Amino acid sequence: QLALVDLAGSERTNRTGNTGQRLQEASKINQSLMTLRNCIEVLRDNQNSGGNKAVPYRDSRVTHLFRNYFEGEGKVKMVVCVNPRPTDYDENVNVMQFAELTQEVQIERAVGVRFDLGLTPGRRRANQVYKEAVRRLEEQGE
């Protein structure tokens, strides 16, 4: 499964002057970023304290795309873009702090590798039934 997520437009609305639909879009992006930050912070806290708090990835569509990563079965690569304008310094610092926070998190990989990632539960069950039928046929020598 490959998910590409563009979080452009997360800049401060008072500077951009966005209104209407663009303002709603920026608000949703900012809310998704906050959920992503919460997920990363829970992972970091679990890592540092040995805890086992649930990662709230279901709280946002964007973080739900990263479910495999949060469960230790996938990988995530992040590209951070910053604006070179001096007026965007504070915003760039926040972005870089978030990027640094994400680099501190190490996810424990699942012990068994699953090759059925990306399959729907129904398709996953059908795949299991098929594999079981093949195994039985092999046992019977057919």
Can you put this structure into words, describing what you see?
The protein is an all-alpha fold. 55% of the residues lie in helices and 0% in strands. The two termini are 35 Å apart. The model has no long low-confidence stretch (mean pLDDT 78).
Count the strands? 0
Secondary-structure-based class equals mainly alpha
H/E topology pattern: HHHHHH
Largest sheet: none
The radius of gyration computed from the alpha-carbon positions, rounded to a whole number of angstroms, is 21 Å
Helix and strand layout, with pairings?
Layout: H1 13-16, H2 20-49, H3 61-65, H4 67-70, H5 89-103, H6 121-140
Features:
142 residues, single chain, elongated, 0% strand, mainly alpha
Put the structure in a nutshell:
By secondary structure, this protein is mostly helical.
